[in-house]
Specification:
Helix content is about 65%, strand content about 0%. It folds into 2 domains: about 40 residues, no CATH class; about 110 residues, AhpD-like (Up-down Bundle), CATH 1.20.1290. It is globular. Helix 4 packs antiparallel against helix 5 and helix 4 crosses helix 7. By secondary structure, the chain is an all-alpha fold. It contains 9 helices and no strands.
């Protein structure tokens, strides 16, 4: 049971319903974590804006999902791990790639550099080393793409926090976290 109220379509006010209608038209569903965000329509709008910016950049959708999977595992958010496993499959990631992403890498060398950098940004709260920046640049990422990777990290930290703090019910096929050995 969620520890923070989940705003259902039935309990939503007019502003929340309008946001839900827009989300439903784009995604086909309104995921439960967005129903937690909806407690504050301004917070939901802010997240949707950040999500739109992050997904409108030059990083491909697969790399965005790789980053989301890596951070969901790193930050121990089972909701986000479950959601991004389903979304990752929709954008073409296979099981082996998803497992690699959860472990902080990728089967694709260029994407592996982005995932590794994203995990470093998350782990060190942005205080990455010059070598870590050089590695992502040497993999062919532009300054714009590096900023987009950091933006994806920030967005995923936010969703991981909402997922963990609320313990919202997982409305995707459940994927269990791997515990550190």
């Amino acid at each position: 049971m969620a520890r923070i109220n989940v705003v259902t379509h039935e309990t939503a006010n007019a502003e929340q319903k309008a946001l839900y209608d827009a989300i439903q038209s784009q995604l086909g569903i309104v995921p439960n974590f967005l129903k937690v965000f909806a407690n504050s329509p301004e917070a939901l709008k802010a997240f949707l804006g950040l999500h739109g910016i992050a997904n409108g950049g030059s990083l491909d959708p697969q790399t965005g999902e790789r980053i989301a999977l890596a951070l969901a595992q790193q930050n121990a958010c089972e909701y986000c791990l479950s959601a991004h496993t389903a979304i990752g499959r929709k954008v073409g990631l296979n099981g082996a790639e998803i497992e690699a992403n959860r472990a902080g890498t990728s089967q694709d060398a260029r994407a592996a550099a982005a995932v590794k950098f994203a995990r470093a940004v998350n782990e060190h709260t942005g205080d990455v080393t010059t070598a870590e920046l050089a590695d992502v640049r040497n993999a062919g990422y532009s300054e714009a793409e590096i900023v987009e990777i950091i933006t994806h990290v920030g967005m995923n930290i936010l969703t991981n926090l909402i997922g963990r703090a609320s313990r919202v019910e997982i409305d995707f096929p459940r994927v269990e976290l791997k515990l550190a050995a």
